[in-house]
User: What shape does this take?
Amino acid sequence: MKTYQKVYHILKNADNYISGEQLAEQLNLSRTSIWKATQQLEKHGLVIDSIPNRGYRLIEGDLLEPSWLSDQLPFTIHYREDSQSTQQDARQGLEAGDLGDSLYIAPSQTGAKGRFGRQFFAPQQGGIYMSLHLKPMVAFEQMPPYTILVAAATVQAIENLTTKKPLIKWVNDIYLDSKKIAGILTEAVTSVESGLITDIIIGIGLNVYIKTFPEELKDKAGSLFDEQPEISRNQLIAEIWKVYLNTPENQLIDLYRKKSLVLGQTVSFTQNKIAYTGLATEIDREGRLQVETPKGETIWLNSGEVSLSSWTSEQKD
Assistant: This one.
């Protein structure tokens, strides 16, 4: 464990200021090393208050802890501080022979993207960015609805650890108080020879505690917390995957429907260059959305082909 990580562990568990002398004695280091460690923590986006004759206190932020996550989850944890995209990290791991059950995490991302190549804001501190690589080896028609399952698991994990009540916009976005706080991107690799889905990469970007968004996003994007959270990003990461692994598939699908922002609502979309408006009435196991138009048409929307342009919604309990 690096010095700044050791200092972080002490500060995060402290109720008050800890002097540089105390830290130095506890870690058998020089006062200069302690000061450098706090500077390193600040470079990671943490806010450290320093008062002469009192010492240091952690005000905001946390560190991702791969070793702790390894103890909590049955995955191989890959951590990269300078990640462009955890999806890309996972694809590179796959190409290098990764055997699956691997979770790629990063404190931020420099080139994060969501569905249809849309940019995803991923600052230095306050977000969860991770991608899980699995090797299902199943036929396409037998592939579990990963996006639905992980979206439901994310919402359930948030409710398990907090008092927040997020909802899901079909198919892969999670909303809180009418603002998007998370997106999920699932990519599949198919073998031409066998026709099987050999690899799945499920990416999650979740705004946990981000105070400032770019001008073009501030009215659309939000955070799970609007003040320093009482839980760490590590706890939420672990809970998401524990829920995913330990909850039966049918229960997660039912939860996805229950937490849907769009079921029972009027939605607008474009399919084959034709604009439609209709009532969203059902989500099937594969994640398709059924819409009934005013003309009596029944249209099934495939998540890979169309994106909702608008919907009317009310926050649910």
About this structure: The CA atoms of residues 11 and 58 lie 6 Å apart. Residues 146-161 form the longest helix (16 residues). The chain has three domains: 3-60, 66-258, 266-311. The first strand starts at residue 47 and ends at 51.
